[in-house]
Amino acid sequence: MEPSAIHGRDVVGNMVAPSIPYSTLMGFIWSGTCLSLVTILLRLAFRIKLLRRLRLDDYLVIASFVFYLGSTILWAVLARTLYVVAQGWNTTPTDPAAIVELFNNAGTLLHAILATYWLTWTSLWLVKIAFMVFFYPLGRHAPLQRYLWWTVLVCIVAAYCVTVGLTTDDCLTASGLDIAQKCIGEAKFNRQYFTSRVHLATDISTDLLSQFHVPPFCQTVN
Q: What are the pLDDT digits (tens) for 141-196?
């Protein structure tokens, strides 16, 4: 989840007041996690009943949920700080100690947000790889299908590297004071907007790539 979706930003990227109540945010985050858990448990129960064992793609899905759960827990821990920082940013404290504390809290918050990005993207890409692993045995006797499978897999992994690499930004890794000095303004907001569009493009393109990869496999099986 993008932090700007919670607290909002103005036209130059400055933080504005939170637009989503804390209780609503927590309910949304934990509802999604619980729904994911139920879905995965049903999947595992079905696979065990049908195959009497779990396969590699099942373990990848489990790993994906662990990363997703980690992201949820981290959001639950940092959410209060998010609202405190957003409120402090809008009231602009005059006490020097309060200003330093605000900058430190903002730095800690953005470092934690970076961690949630990594956890979330890793969780999502593990699901994509699990999907690929599920179809891998279907091309066992078709060498061309193997080449296609590996090509798609390499593209998915490369897209993951691009996605994670773009989130490693000075505005998420620097100190709170450096972030306040260098990361507020239209240029930084435009870069964040561009990064979010690239994230969306890599996510959709890898999904489509893996979907286009399925019909040839099905034709091979038939």
A: 667 777 888 888 999 999 999 888 887 666 777 676 777 677 766 777 777 778 88
pTM of the model: 0.77
**In which residue are the tokens 């602009």 written?**
92
d(CA 130, CA 149): 13
Residue 159, C-beta contacts closer than 8 angstroms, at least 6 positions apart: 125, 202, 205, 206
How big is the CA angle at 97 (ends 112 and 168), to the nearest 5 degrees?
25
| Cβ 46 vs Cβ 21: under 8 Å | no
| Residues 184 and 12 sit within 8 Å (Cβ to Cβ) | yes
Nearest to 135 by CA among 221, 46, 214, 60: 214
- Among 92-101, 123-132, 207-216, top mean pLDDT goes to 123-132
Letter for the amino acid at 10? D
Is the pLDDT confidence value at 15 over 60? no
Contact 87, 25 (CB under 8 A): no
Determine the 3-state secondary structure of 15 from DSSP: strand
CA distance 133 to 138: 10
Spatial contact of 169 and 179, defined as CB atoms under 8 Å apart: no
Whole-angstrom Cα distance, residue 47 to residue 169?
A: 41
Residue 173 burial (CB < 10 Å; 0-12/13-18/19+)? middle
What is the per-residue pLDDT across 122-150, written as a single tens digit (0 to 9) for each? 999 999 999 989 888 776 666 777 788 88
